[in-house]
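Task 17 of the worksheet. Students: predict the tertiary structure of the chain below and write it out as structure tokens. Keep your answer in the requested format; marks are given for formatting as well as content.
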Amino acid sequence: MKILFDYCYQMRSYADHTGFCLVELEKDEKAEDIIKSMEIPVQWYEQSYKFLEAREEYTDTSSAKEKTYKGNLLLFATRAGYTG
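Model answer:
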């Protein structure tokens, strides 16, 4: 498993942090095993992951410059609670 990016931004004041994580699978890895290892229970203040979809291509538009990733990809939504 190779994590291509993992970010969590606070979109407004006093709000939770949300974002995305993109993982590229190696040849012998199973998607189900990676999803199970990422979606573990965490404390409310820790970053959590929720599987969204498997893709062959993903274009990240979160920064000023777009970047396209290709391969056997898994996209996760990320969330971290506001800790003030």
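Marker's comment: The beta strands are 2-10, 17-24, 48-60, 67-80. Residues 31-38 form the longest helix (8 residues).
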